[in-house]
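Our example pasted here:


***
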Amino acid sequence: MGGTLNEMVRIRGALFAVELREEVERRKHMAVLSALGAAFLHMALVLLSFLVAAVFWDTHRIAAIATLVVVYLACGIAALVRLRAAVAESPPPFAASLRELDEDLAQLRSLR
């Protein structure tokens, strides 16, 4: 029984370590992609704002700038709502390890 318990702990520990490495790498990848995407989108929005302001400077500059503000605000709110949904839908970290530990505990309780 002691050998079996030792083997179970060793295997579960290895599974936990693998999941931890995968989670860290996934988070790093997501952070880099988010930073790059935000930087390029920011530059595009700044340049688009200048372009629209320059095109409508003589006729409707206030309306053009106000329209851009509303569009940017709507896009920002939509992005935050989508982020909130993605966080809610993502599986909890170490789900496989926790599931295996629950199964192990159930098997140990049934042996008693």
